[in-house]
């Protein structure tokens, strides 16, 4: 009885011998594809890494000290691949760094590790607003140990995963690898079979995937600004640059072949070994640990606050004195005006001044006194207003 085999390209009845032979053909084809992926040039892997680094930090070799807190709820985002708190990748980087002998920022990072291991909103928000934690990360980024930790986690968590995915789907083109690698780093790699089905043609499948991912990013408000990634890949696909030939404009950065070379690190300056007295003096003169430095900063901050409080107190005294002085002037002006009117009225009565003249002059004098009092009150209010305070 003839067997039935349904291939990925067409559906047809096959003989029993074909039923046995066809799977071996696909297994052989899979191994050929895997060999191609495994033998992918290091240059092509470097191109993909440079593209993603530019996406993440604006530099082809990344920025080990880059720190950001975005409004997507991921918390602190750090380093060459912007390892995040919520994803757990930042915790892996910090743990790997703390396993070394490096000391830069290590005390602060060690004390924050319990919070970093929790991915609750409270924990994420706490570290997102922790300036000392972020300063410790920046300080550690200057060490070779932190750079090595970031490189190791990036390779384990992202690069190897991208290679595995390309092997599983038989992708062999550099542009395909860059698309997969970027998707995994960005955290938006969607299960391909759910949307596009099996791979029949690599170029067509990758193009459809990038288009689907582009629309998906646009549909989410917090991810809409990241469509520059898919825009780049769509442009390279449109011009047929599947080999990622350089130069390329990557998100505003002109990527050249020279950018793929590893940057030459400046060797550290070797200082002469100090004698024991100098070493002791140095220990006394300057904080030797991050905790000591933090205490010194706190003490300085307290002094500044104390001085500021005294300045505020002096300002309040000056303001109160000015206000009382203005009020006193207004009071005495009122008393003086009233007395003057009384004296003039009595004098005019005994002098026999005609009533009509006496009444007109009294009204004029009253108006003048009222204007003077109004002037004093207005000046007092102006001095009291915040606009005129020192």
SSE arrangement:
Layout lengths: L3 E3 L4 E3 L2 H23 L3 H16 L9 E3 L6 E3 L4 E2 L4 H10 L7 H11 L4 H8 L2 H10 L3 H26 L4 H13 L5 H4 L6 H17 L8 H12 L9 E3 L2 E3 L20 H10 L4 H62 L3 H30 L6
Report on the architecture of this protein:
It is a single chain. By secondary structure, the protein is mainly alpha-helical. The protein has a domain of 99 residues. Helix content is 65%, strand content 5%. It is built from 14 helices and 7 strands. The strands form 3 sheets. Strands 3-4-5 form a 3-stranded antiparallel β-sheet. A two-stranded antiparallel ribbon has the order 1-2. It has a two-stranded antiparallel ribbon with strand order 6-7. Strand 6 and strand 7 form a beta hairpin.
Global geometry: elongated
> Rg, please?
39 Å
Spatially, the strands of the biggest sheet line up as 3-4-5
Order of helices and strands: EEHHEEEHHHHHHHHHEEHHH
Number of strands: 7
Mean pLDDT: 74
Structural class, by secondary structure, is mainly alpha
Percent of residues in beta strands? Answer: 5-15%
Short key terms for the protein model shown above:
elongated, 390 residues, mainly alpha, two-stranded antiparallel sheet, three-stranded antiparallel sheet, disordered N terminus
The gist of it:
This protein is 65% helix and 5% strand.
